[in-house]
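Lest this sound abstract, we let one protein speak, letters for residues, whole numbers for local backbone shapes, and leave readers to judge:
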Amino acid sequence: MSRVLYVHAKGGPPVGHALTRVAARSAVHLLALSELPAAVAADAAGLCDSVVMAGDPPGSDLVGLIAGRAREVGADAVVTFSEYAVVAVAEASRRLGLRGAGPAAALARDKRLMRRAWERHGIPQPRFRSVTSAAELDRAAVELTYPLLLKAAWSAGSTAHQIIEASELARAAWQRSRAVMTESARLGFAELHVAGAGEDFIVEEIVSGCAGDWFDGSGWGDYVSVEGVVVDGVFRPVCVSGRMPTVAPFTERAGITPAALGGDAQDRIVELARQAVEALGLEDCGTHTEIKLGADGRMWVIETAARFGGAMTVPQIEEVFGLDLVGLFTDQLLGRSPEWPARALTGEDAEGAAGSLVVLAVDGDGAPWARRHLWDPAAVLRGAPIGAGSSLSVVHENSLPQGAPVPVYDPAAGANTMAGLCLLSADRPQSVVRDLTALVDAMPRILPTHIGEGVRA
């Protein structure tokens, strides 16, 4: 029987979902670089032939650690679905002569390398500059047009994003972003392979989106993500997921599968994603490419990744399209011949629609809640104002414990201040947007007030 080394770190699809699907295709040996969620830890021994906790942090030679463990278990493939371990796993796979993202994996992780590659290939993107110090930020800002967005080169989940409206605000933004990256590393949400990655940033111009030119219904955000895979160096699109509007500065609130786009619009979006992915020279990996949608058909590539989308993107695709992306990708790494879609799937191929909501302590307009609240999954399920044909669940693995205080939303910390993750299923994408919008508005009425922290947030 084939053997897979599954490298777990924070981020990516829920490990409980992914691990069961890898285990259905192969014997699994688990190498955990970060703590497993309690519910998953209880099941891991039954799913895996071995479970090894690497320690936190896992050590300076992460590639050596992964490659060494893969040799010990005789792994035929090494897999991870975490943004923070993608580069290390790619390098370990190369060292072992196994399939993987290949030597270009860092181009799909380091935003500086990614943007330079796109620049060489003429891929439309916001104008940007790389920065590693406050002085470099000052010089870069002179060459760009305000407002600007400062973002960490190795971050994920909109962490450490800062909008800079004017030159006199640049130094404060720089200090705040660096502090957030330090805190993220302490929480385990940081690049595991590259030392000092928290010091690398890019600053870019903010392009204007226009969701109304792309979607028929209301409530959609002005960007999408193209989910796909690279098979022996060839990009294979799977589908396009839409979004609700972000919370300032650019924190994702909700993703919806499929996106309610017309056929011509989706074709153009998928083609741009193809160009962006192929410009990076990846070999065998999942892909998640975010594209900003503007007026008059304009588009800009925001970023891509050499892994599948995080949060509930993968389970959503499985629910509405019947595609087990994790299982198919496991087969690919093992040298089998999985049947990937021949084209990007659309709403006509879907059975209903699904969306996931990140619970943040802000209302629909992005304003902070007036009161502090406690996280209560049962209250959410009991009081959610969803349509008669819709269903809602709470992803406990990605949520705070029952009764924990909902964090005050911090724009710089992004998804680090989330309280919970919800999954909603409905008959069509617009119904998902409608129900999630209603749930956002109702959340502070549904959740109990946190008396111990005073009245106001």
